[in-house]
Design goal:
This protein has 234 residues and is of the alpha/beta class. It has helices at 21-28, 45-55, 95-104, 126-131, 139-152, 169-178, 193-202, 211-214, 216-230; strands at 9-13, 34-37, 62-65, 78-84, 113-120, 157-161, 183-187, 205-208. Bound molecules: SN-glycerol-1-phosphate. Pathway: Membrane lipid metabolism; glycerophospholipid metabolism.
């Protein structure tokens, strides 16, 4: 059974973006803890199943982050379900979840499902626009969301999502250290080893997305950077 609590580094692959076989092989053999498949727009059953079958040639743990209930593909190791805590549109807090469980409830394997409390912090991101997220937040707002995620909803993951831009590491560090059980996932703007080291020093788990498509060599260097942080050489 996969233990996501041990993950330090995750690559996030978008089914709506092209990646050639060589690049995919380098990602899957990089030493990352897991490959997460997910994206905000253009995710379909077909492009998700296609990417899963290509990743499955490798042994790396492979999980799906569900953003569209028409693109729920069997065969992943785990299924991550975002609950966007700062969404203004309640569809992203409970609406899509309700419809998905109504439709797929009888066949859901609940021990494969991980709920993520998302806080979206980059107002310019697609995720913020789609969910109508309130991104103008004080640190105290984020702290409150962290408590709601962990104490009220008992979510196993709090995901601080800066998708496309590098975030406030002091905020990430303080939020992570305020959590007792939940894991803090950080994603956004990690474009190479320097930022990976900073983010890894602040969060429990870092997620690298865009860099895979923009500069693969530097994206791959983020895996080693985590190992450096683990050894204490920042
Ligand atoms: C996106 O948090 C991930 O959901 C990663 O962000 O694409 O900016 O690396 P980037």
């Amino acid at each position: 059974m996969i233990d996501m609590r041990r993950w330090k580094h995750v690559f996030k692959l978008d089914p709506d973006r092209d990646i050639d076989d060589m690049a995919l092989e380098r990602i899957c053999l990089s030493g990352t803890d897991a490959v997460m498949v997910g994206g905000t727009s253009g995710v379909t059953f077909d492009n998700t199943v296609d990417l899963l079958s290509r990743i499955r040639r490798f042994e790396v743990d492979c999980v799906l982050e569900i953003s569209d209930r028409d693109a729920i593909v069997p065969g992943f190791d785990l299924y991550f379900i975002p609950i966007v805590l700062n969404a203004s549109n309640p569809d992203w807090i409970i609406g899509h979840h309700h419809l998905a469980v109504k439709e797929y409830g009888p066949m859901m394997q609940w021990d494969q499902i991980v709920a993520e409390g998302y806080v979206i912090l980059n107002g310019d991101s697609t995720a913020a626009r789609v969910t109508e997220a309130r991104t103008e937040l004080e640190r105290s707002d984020v702290e409150a969301y962290a408590k709601i995620a962990e104490r009220l909803f008992r979510l196993p993951v709090l995901y601080l999502e800066y998708s496309g831009t590098f975030g406030d590491m002091e905020l990430v560090r303080r939020t992570a250290s305020s959590l007792q059980d939940a894991r803090l996932f950080y994603g956004g703007g990690i474009d190479g080893p320097e930022k990976a080291r900073q983010a890894a020093a602040a969060a429990h788990t870092i997620i690298v997305g865009n860099a895979i498509y923009e500069n693969l060599d530097r994206a791959l260097e983020t895996v080693q950077a985590i190992q450096d942080v683990e050894k204490g050489c920042l």
